[in-house]
Amino acid sequence: MFGRQRSANPSTLTRGAPEQHRRDEVDACSRSTRRTRILFLLSSFRVGGAERVMCHLLSSLPRSQFDIHLAVVNPTGPLRSSIPPDVCVHEWKTRRASRSMFALLRLVWSIRPDRILSTGSQLNVLAGLLRPFYPPGCRLLVRESATVLQLGQSWNGWLKPLAAIAYRKADAVIAQSTAGANELRNQLHLPHDRVGHIYNPVPFELIQTTVTSEASPFPAESAGPHLVSVARLDPVKRLDHLIEAFTKLLVHRPNAHLWIVGEGSERADLEELIRSSGLQNQVHLVGFDNNPWRWMRHADLFVLCSQFESLPNSLLEAIAWRCPVVTLDIPGGTREIMEQLGLESRIVKRLEDWCDAWFERPDETTHQRATDLLGLETIVAQYSRRLVAHETCIADEADAEPASNEFPQAAVFN
To answer: Could you tell me if 174 and 204 are in contact, meaning their C-beta atoms sit under 8 angstroms apart?
Structure first.
């Protein structure tokens, strides 16, 4: 029922193993008792924003400080190969968070983590509701990657009230932006000092190393401009709206092409829209690409048109490539991060009003701001401080304003 554990240790845990044997195997993965033991909770290895952020943290948190475990509800997806070999992976195969209650409790009492870091609304709710049953000294941090609007639309409206109950039991709630943190406080009535925000990391060095040698994915014979959107093919991404707006651009730039990188349930509907609009030669559904950065590097414009976004990783990564970007003014943290980077002029009400200025590349100042604010080293350091805050009092964080990238100290002390 509880699956198996994979680790750098050649031996594995199997179903029905005696409890003592199970604990011995876990201890073999974690040789130092002086490090803070962290249990990450993840829904799957699919390519999503939350999953990618967790992979960055799993790879980058300092091993001298942390002994890292990862529990996965549905251990399928392409990101499985991105997990570092020294991370102890517990594969539950329960498929759904709602079926993982006993798996979570059994694992927590088996490995006795100092911290649990959960991401994804359904897993967060489960982890929060079970908080009173964890071993003494175990603290729970939940990272919310959805907007409150999304919570209200899930589980026939039940997820939002359950989240309000569960998140009050957590020791800290991590939003992706100031706007997200304020929304969680106000809509779920959470204690102010337990909610903060940490922006999503952008691995600038990894991006540049991966893509520098990549040739342009666009046909050499096509003059362009080439517009790119990297998104799951899902109604919430409003790609149909983007395709319809693109027809307006063709009036002024008849050689333009739109490339949509991603896969999802709306493919058939989008293909029909492209066919009925006569755009088969100029709108391209690329499908999933494990290296979407090469599209951003060579694009003339990156477009975001979602219904809402907590903090869109694809937009941040396009900015990392100095790619011109434009985004609709949508709920979530998008406006906040664009203003932080001095790109508020790239926030628009309508995509139909295509403007030549949108295609101008940002200057070096914008790139440096993005590196300072969102760089992997910066964000990993912020998570590290939050995960060990009960052991290390950081005096200058005690009076930090809620708008900073830090929590009030009480967020993990209470």
So the answer is: no
Residues 6+ apart with CB under 8 A from 198: 174, 176, 379, 382, 383, 386, 405
pTM score of the predicted model:
0.80
Position of tokens 């475990």?
69
pLDDT at 29: 52
Could you tell me the two tokens for 387? 């995960």
* Count, residues in the chain: 414
Measured distance between the N- and C-terminal CA atoms of the chain, rounded to whole angstroms: 35
Distances (CA, A) of 83 to 66, 231, 303: 15, 23, 30
| φ, ψ of residue 31 in degrees (nearest 5) | -85, -20
Instruction: Say which residue the tokens 């403007």 belong to.
Output: 355
Amino acid 195 reads V
**Euclidean distance between CA atoms 366 and 400, whole angstroms:** 25
**pLDDT computed for residue 12 by the predictor:** 36
Position 42, amino acid: L
Q: Six-digit token pair at 279?
A: 């755009």
Q: Which of 13, 30, 14 is nearest to 68 (CA)?
A: 30
Write the DSSP string, 310-334: SS-HHHHHHHHTT--EEEE--SBSH
- CA-CA-CA-CA dihedral for 244, 250, 256, 259, to nearest 10: 10
- pLDDT, tens digit (0-9, with 9 covering 90-100), for 110-138: 999 999 999 988 899 999 999 999 999 99
Give the integer Cα–Cα distance in Å for 358 and 362: 10
66-91 per-position pLDDT tens digit: 999 999 998 888 888 889 999 999 99
Q: Phi-psi category of 408—alpha, beta or left, where left has phi over 0 and alpha has psi -120 to 50? A: beta
Q: Which residue has the higher pLDDT, 158 or 249?
A: 249
